[in-house]
Amino acid sequence: MIDRAFFAGFAGAALLVAGEAQAGPLAADAREQVLAGVDAKKVETVGKAIWSFAETGYQEQKSAALLAKELKDAGFQVTMGVVGEPTAFLASYRNGAGPVIGITAEYDALPGLAQQTVPTKTPIAGQAHGHGCGHNLLGAASVAAAIAVKKWMIASKTPGELRVYGTPAEEGGSGKVYMVRDGLFKDVDAAVHWHPAGANSAAQSISMANTNGKFRFYGRSSHASGNPEAGRSALDAVEIMNVATNYLREHVPDRTRIHYVITSGGGAPNVVPDYAEVYYYVRSPDPQVVRSVMARVTKAGEGAAIATETRMEFEQIGGVYSMLPNDTLGQVMDKNLRSLGGIAWTAEEKAFAAKMRESVPDARGTIESVAQVQPYAVRTDPDAAGGSTDMSDISWVVPTVGLGTATFVPGMPGHSWQNTAAAGMSIGTKGAVLASRTLALTLAEMIASPDVIATAKAEMEKRRGPDFRYVALIGNRAPALDYRNNSRVE
């Protein structure tokens, strides 16, 4: 889902020179210890391995197993298959009583984006999926950061608990939401995340709440020419639903987004389809608008079923809140990112990027921007919301902070072959290493600073309001482990 697109668009902003800021409250020797523990080579090898696996949501057996093994070998206690998700895991290291800090690791790929590590569109023969959102880098860098901080906690005798949440199916499967709903974050003091991007930024922003699901229609097949009167077309129902929903767009709140794709529409023109399926997303900065608009989309489906004398079923697949920014933690993250600075590309990497940018003639930003850190801000205006992420649900129950680093060529679209290519080569690795180092410093600072955590909690409570009660948009359903399949359900 990147949908973490709320990190996009920063490339056109005014730039600050990397390295201007001073380091945070960690002592210089502590910072050196933390940074020395980040194994850049591991980030590269693990990231490339997961890139080659290219497993989609809830199918990430190899990817999850690799990350879990890295953590187990480093001394974390690892539990696989949490909250009913076979490819989810929880890894923990505790060093006495102290703050409990969580970091998330994603590793799911996207359908249809297999791409070689070259700057022109070149699919991989025999492979369908690809890491067009860079989650291969995300999981690798988060795990490397956690391992580095564990080493520092032992060496410095710093008390606290560090948890790594292995979170599958971010791309539409809402993997983290089940963890929040089922209480895996109830005793966590703060959470940290990052996402691959086209720029280096710790700016905090809202995102779009999102609910999504599949509408399945069941009709009656017949010969489309010989006896069409006997048929009841499930595809007709899908098309009527889509027309009705498209008319609905005029009558929904501003900033609402509705997307759909027909995932099953029949097999032959001369057979009236007795089964069809359409997959819908509804987004808005306001979770309540998402709920109400999806209810109206569902009515469009019900009306289509009546009009075509078919039967409709709806399966809720995913649902996520909008992001609740936290300025207290955002300033900590920004300070650490700024102390490390931007990314230096080689002449070969710049040439790769320049060639790739030819595929997007109106690409924003510049290649040079990866050497900079973008200005810090907290964006709460609805116009700042772009994509959606299941990380958002965590932000409503635990103070949460994230960043983006330049793992992609600036100006390339999200969920693209261009990003798959960059995520599998040195451009992606360099951005992931910067992210891992920034995450490690931020995790260490949070564990060592209970007062910062207390301030962050107070800010979260103020932003969400005194009467807030978390209710997951996915309801009580079990994880949709087969949501990437379009198989018929009777």
Task: Give the arrangement of secondary structure elements.
Elements: H1 28-36, H2 40-53, H3 61-73, E1 77-80, E2 89-94, E3 100-105, H4 135-156, E4 161-166, H5 175-181, E5 190-197, E6 204-205, E7 209-218, H6 234-248, E8 257-264, E9 275-284, H7 287-308, E10 311-320, H8 327-340, H9 347-357, E11 378-379, H10 391-395, E12 400-406, H11 417-423, H12 426-447, H13 450-464
Parallel strand pairs: 3-4, 3-5, 5-12, 6-11
Antiparallel strand pairs: 1-2, 2-4, 7-9, 7-10, 8-9
Helix pairs in contact: 1-4, 2-3, 2-4, 2-12, 3-4, 4-12, 6-7, 8-12
Structure summarized in a few sentences:
It is an enzyme of class 3 (hydrolase). By secondary structure, this protein is α/β, with parallel strands linked by helices. The chain is built from 13 helices and 12 strands.
Fourth-level CATH superfamily of the largest domain: Zn peptidases
- Per CATH, the architecture of the largest domain is 3-Layer(aba) Sandwich
Helix share bin: 25-40%
Average pLDDT across residues? Answer: 93
Category by helix and strand content: alpha/beta
For this structure, the CATH topology of the largest domain is: Aminopeptidase
Distance between the termini: 28 Å
Count of individual helical segments: 13
Name of the level-1 CATH class of the largest domain = Alpha Beta
